[in-house]
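How a chain folds remains the central question behind the approach discussed here. No coordinates are needed to read the tokens, only the vocabulary itself. For completeness, the protein is quoted in full, as a sequence line and a line of structure tokens:
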Amino acid sequence: MNKSGFLFFAALIMAGCQQPAEKKAASTTDSTMVRLLTLDPGHFHAALVQKISYADIASTVHVYAPEGSGLDAYLALINQYNSREQDPTRWNEVVYKGDDFAEKMLEEKKGNVVVLSGNNRLKTDYIQRSVAAGLNVLADKPMAIDKTNFDKLVKAFEEAASKKVLLYDIMTERSEITNMLQKELMHIPELFGELKKGSEKDPAVFIESIHYFYKQVSGRPLVRPDWFFDPIQQGDAIADVGTHLVDLIQWQCFPEVVLDHSKDIDVYGGKIWPTPLTLSQFTSITGKTQYAPFLSPYIVNDSVLNTHANGEMNYKIKDVHARIIARWDYRAEEGGDSHYAIMKGTKASLEIKQTKEENFKPVLYILPADGKGSKEFDATVSSAIQQIEAKYPGVSAERSGNKWKVVIPATYDVGHEAHFGEVMVRYLQFIKDGKLPDWEVPNMIAKYYTTTKALELATK
């Protein structure tokens, strides 16, 4: 793909176009094509990476996995994408099933990019082994769920550099339009001023993410594996969902700044608490009518599963106080997963809300720092939105009481599932460039240091 072709395609992605990438990119010769190796796809994110086709990825995907429901669910989603009426994909899944599936993949090396999305207890070891074999890795979050795996991950990044392969995680929240615009507005000094330092009691940055166990994916009820509820295999909430939230803070507040986790991050607080699930609720999520033995440590009152579903972390990043809360509940009464975020500047705050008032869609608001506003502030908002509109056509703002609501055209709302394709497009460009941006690797290390250190504090 030439440079102009890629830029054109990237522009369409940013504008919310959901057409397959294969129609917007020049073809590539077989010798330079990316060939996917899907390893042990125990989580549905492995399939979402393949929800569209890509001109630079060979249609044949070699899959290595044990027999079981995880593999079956992955293949069912791929078949759904291949057989849909509108823009069907053309994936050819070649599957190897056996206890030695990981060894077989490393022995055969029938591809050059390993896609990992599954049991998080095993993921860091899979990363290490794949990188050691000279394979690129695109891994779903989290790449490390505790201090031991964090240390392994650091070594994997060191080996990836020596082997000249690219190890990268799937950060879909960077593709959500309200997050993107919140970042853009933060860096218009006339509007936002400077990011406040905040305090432990009143952090300058606060993000809360609420997820639900019972949900739909690609229009069908999601069946989760029972190990999803085991913190030893899935990880606690702050080490799992928390990776997205830490990543957003780094990416939004300190864009393209190389972070040193030993100097720039100070984690000083963390706590975790459970979400109780009844056996009938557990059955509706997993299809299992009884708990597996590995869940017995979390069973209370004979049949209630206390899941490690909630966590909070408090830390400083470059002396800016930040608080993160990751929560899970059984099922949303209305709407679905929700996101709240506020960034406090000396002149304005930028707040994302996703409540019933917003029709359960994320909405970005601009609030004057003094809580009152003025004609001068209104003029500054209008000027800032004009700058934004030049980059994101159609974006506007409207006054709502003492704050401004950022109005975003529906074309930018492509949905969470489409963000996986957008991450893949970015990763493909990195492969063509032969490297990640200079800040990505140290900031991934900083991110996983933050989440695993918070968990360490929470469990002491």
